[in-house]
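Notes on consecutive records. When two proteins share a document, each keeps its own sequence and its own token line. Never mix them. Below: protein one.
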Amino acid sequence: MSDAAAIDRFLEMMAAQAGAAQNTLAAYRRDLMLASAALDGGLAVADGAALERLADGWTALSKATVARKAAALRRFFGFLIDEGDRADDPSPALPRPGTQRRLPRTLDHGDVDRLFAAIDARLARDPVIPTDLRLSALFELLYGSGLRATELVSLPRGAIHPDRPFLILKGKGGRERLVPISDRARAAVAAWRAHVATDRPFLFPSGATHISRVRLFQLVRALAAEAGIAPERISPHVLRHAFATHLLEGGADLRALQTMLGHADIATTEIYTHVDSSRLVELVNERHPLVDALRKRA
């Protein structure tokens, strides 16, 4: 995997899923290509020691510039891990000059309800349009199973069995993981698959292959607008975050969530523990043994 190819794929994701502006993409490309040149083309496979040497060359730069360069590299390595191109994350070796890790964007339960209500309204039309069945299957798998966009669009036609409530996926790094598939997701897939010719290799075909991540991104944003949700708030990856966040809110074990998401490092999954903060406050206010005493004093 060459740095140039990995950077191109990363920037494609940033444009499609994050909706990054051209200036932002240009800045990411510049920072990543400079880092690649400094590491003799070994950025994608760099370890922590290599990144420390790279950061040593930033000592004359302002904190804002260092923070920007480090943020670009962290996001790049996060993308490589998410895509299965590497199992480890060397980015903790990068400096953090007065910056904090950003929490992932997510959706609340009301947002998700509105998205599925919009889909239900489409499916209630007579006759049902096949592309609406496809949209239903895509959303059920995105939010119901937390699939990555690339994994979702490239699913084989027979990947999801009507009598098997799970899917075994193999990432680019060769790691396999078990992904649960809900009853309603399997039903949605079955309804859509009836409209996919048996000789098509992919579940979501388009042309000679399958729909692209860019097309999936467009479908997600179009439905968000239809559901009254600001399109800039949502992407396939945000739905994956919502899957993880809402499972954790419901009491899911962090290790089980790590397995379902396909994270090689539990630290990557721990970003979702931010949702527990409000829940913890709520629990303390409702369940702490001193609450009644405090209320009496009030």
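Protein two starts on the next line and is unrelated to protein one.
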Amino acid sequence: MLGNADGSYAEHSDFFHTRYGYFEPRSAQLKMRREARSLLRDFLQARAPDELRDFLREQLAPVSQWPDTGNRLTYRYLLPVLLAPDRSPSLRRLLDEIVERSVLANARARQPRWRRMLLQFNTTLRLSRAIGDCQRDPRTPPRDILDIVAHSAGPDRRQDELSEVFLSFLFAISGSVGFVLAWSLYLWGTHPRRDTPVEWIVQEALRLWPVAWQLGRRPTQAHELSGVKLEASDEVVVCPYMVQRNAAHWSDPAQFQPERWADPRAWRNPAFIPFGHGAHRCVAADLATQLVGDMLRTVLELGEVGIVAQGDRPTVAAAMAPPPFTLTLRNRA
């Protein structure tokens, strides 16, 4: 269904869904994805070996509350990719506010409706203006993702629609990547210590608790799927959470076993879709997991890390966040 080789399902990606419908054409999506991946890759490759360590040593307090800290860390580290350093300070403060009030686990539920509406209005207005400024002053190559989004389509594209696509990048960087980092630390800290590579821990966190836990598609025509008759009015949902805990594809599927990733076959398992599958699979999946692995390794090397969980139930919304937990860091290096 996600591969959609025969076109039985409408092309769909939550990433490119806006209030005006589905952001098209496909060529604009591909251009945006390609340029954003290149920008992120170049940013990560240009970091000095000790830069991430210095950043985390400065940003991570001796006692920190998660998963919020994970969202803030990934956002602050990758902020230059979203907005070039010479952008307006007021625009950077706007993104800070969006993260605090819309991205953090349960952030929206903690805000009264009028405040959410005011932030939405302010965000649309100011981002639309910023995109208009970018379009009037094109930069080659693009300085940041704001540039990439602004020049992804023709001049007739609505600026408020482009602002929503830019927000998808913000939510992916500060929300999705931050939650994966938090899940990795939570699982590491709430299970017996394992001397395993951090990459295996990240993969197992993605398998057990995929942040994007449901992927919906609509049929373009009536057809049958695995013996079930579907109509064009139906919605079909793939749940990576269930797929990745399927005993037909994984041994002890409910158990945290990062050592399972020592087997090369695990990396080729088709029942592993935390980033989707097919044409709309996350284009920067490998870069995101590499960054999370680097951040996890660096945090664990900063000193003696302790994790105290405040429950065992995830926070489930559009993204699935880990239970709240406290991280303590002693004997900092």
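For the record: The two ends are 49 Å apart (CA to CA).
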